From TrEMBL:
The lineage of its organism: Bacteria, Bacillati, Bacillota, Clostridia, Peptostreptococcales. PANTHER family: ACYL-COA DEHYDROGENASE, ISOVALERYL-COA DEHYDROGENASE, MITOCHONDRIAL-RELATED. Keywords: FAD, Flavoprotein, Oxidoreductase. It comes from Hornefia porci. Residues 10-109 form the Acyl-CoA dehydrogenase/oxidase N-terminal domain. GO terms for molecular function: acyl-CoA dehydrogenase activity; flavin adenine dinucleotide binding. Coiled coil: none annotated. Belongs to the acyl-CoA dehydrogenase family. This is Acyl-CoA dehydrogenase. SUPFAM superfamilies: Acyl-CoA dehydrogenase C-terminal domain-like, Acyl-CoA dehydrogenase NM domain-like.
């Protein structure tokens, strides 16, 4: 059970697997422990053209279908969730220009990603987390340019991004839903500053920081879509992002199952392998069933997205189930490993650190349950 993959897509996926096994795994594990930027891993991924896997062929990308992109992202996450999150964040930053961007705007973003670079999505603020209507960053029109002022928090890829999608209020006296707009902002724009990288519990191989705009000037042609159209653009982008978030979480869950199964077959207690203990088998079975169910939901949501159908409820279900599966699988993996699972020498402690974030970002799982519940009430 899983994604629908063509022969070409499978070839790309096989290449990604080999890169992860032969190169990325060791480099990213060392970077997670040292706290240093995984420069060598980024270079290796760039040389292979990982960024192209998520871009349409007409813009110079590999032209993979959404299901195939999901398989690639899950594979990267099974290797290292933080590294995969950097590409997940790229996918989020692509969404606004894919939905409403001009040819120029698409080129600006895709050229960065095809060259192995990273992009950032600047929406969250001190008073605008799950409730994006709290956005206070302002964009004032001055002739043929906009001047941006404000601060954005928890920007994934913030320390390294070469281009940002930033949301700002263009009418401070209006309701946020009618006055929010989206802009492309080059990473080297004058007045843009990056805060110190956050020291995080997990996903350490993706950089996160605050981004500040102090009278940052961008051309009016860098506004994505219509002025005041940013709220719906953010919502639609986040709906897509939740599927990619779920897919990335599945990589953590899958790795937890793989590590736990291998350990259970090898570890002997009371004269027999742990894998012959029913309690352990039940744990493994539950881990596998929850992960497979979540993957099917992600696949179904991607199929709807590919067809241009609404994914509001479906993306919330996919993200919520996959994030919960990742956390539960990682927790059970540590339990199966026992004391060893709590030590850095074994991989599952990192999986537990990495898993938690998927229940938080792109809308907390509590928000996802609200979306699903409200969808049911409206439908019936």
């Amino acid at each position: 059970m899983g994604y629908q993959i063509t022969e070409f897509g499978q070839d790309v996926l096989d290449d990604v697997k080999r890169l992860c096994d032969r190169t990325l795994e060791a480099q990213l594990r060392a970077a997670d422990r040292s706290g240093e930027r995984p420069a060598e891993a980024c270079r290796a991924a760039s040389e292979m053209g990982i960024g192209a896997a998520f871009i349409a062929e007409e813009y110079g990308g590999a032209g993979l279908e959404l299901q195939e992109q999901a398989a690639v992202l899950e594979e990267l996450a099974a290797c290292d969730a933080g590294f995969a999150v950097s590409y997940m964040a790229n996918r989020l930053a692509q969404a606004p220009v894919e939905i409403a961007g001009s040819a120029l705007q698409k080129k600006l973003v895709y050229d960065v990603l095809l060259d192995g670079g990273f992009a950032g999505f600047c929406l969250t603020e001190d008073q605008a987390g799950s409730d994006i209507s709290g956005c206070r960053t302002r964009a004032v029109r001055q002739g043929d340019r906009y001047i941006l002022d404000g601060n954005k928090l928890f920007v994934t890829n913030g320390p390294d991004a070469e281009i940002f999608v930033a949301f700002a209020v263009t009418d401070p006296d209006g309701e946020t839903k009618e006055s929010l707009s989206a802009f492309l902002v080059p990473g080297d724009a004058e007045g843009l500053t990056r805060g110190a990288p956050e020291h995080k519990l997990g996903i350490r191989n993706s950089g996160t920081c605050e981004i500040s705009f102090n009278r940052v000037s961008v051309p009016a042609g860098y506004r994505i879509g219509e002025e005041g159209g940013g709220f719906s653009l953010a919502v639609r982008s986040l709906e897509q992002a939740r599927i990619w978030c779920g897919v990335t979480a599945l990589g953590v869950a899958r790795r937890a199952i793989s590590e736990s199964t291998a350990y259970a077959k090898e570890r002997r207690q009371f004269g027999k392998p742990l894998s012959e203990n029913e309690v352990i088998l039940f744990k493994l079975a539950d881990m596998e069933m929850k992960t497979e169910a979540a993957r099917l939901c992600c696949s179904a949501a991607l199929e709807r997205l590919e067809k241009g159908l609404a994914v509001t409820k479906e993306s919330a279900i996919a993200k919520c189930l996959a994030a919960d599966a990742a956390m539960e699988c990682a927790t059970e993996a540590v339990q199966i490993f026992g004391g060893y699972g709590y030590c850095e020498e074994y991989p599952v402690e990192k999986l537990l650190r990495d898993a938690k974030i998927f229940q938080i970002f792109e809308g907390t799982n509590e928000i996802q349950r609200l979306i699903v519940g409200r969808s049911l009430v409206r439908e019936r």
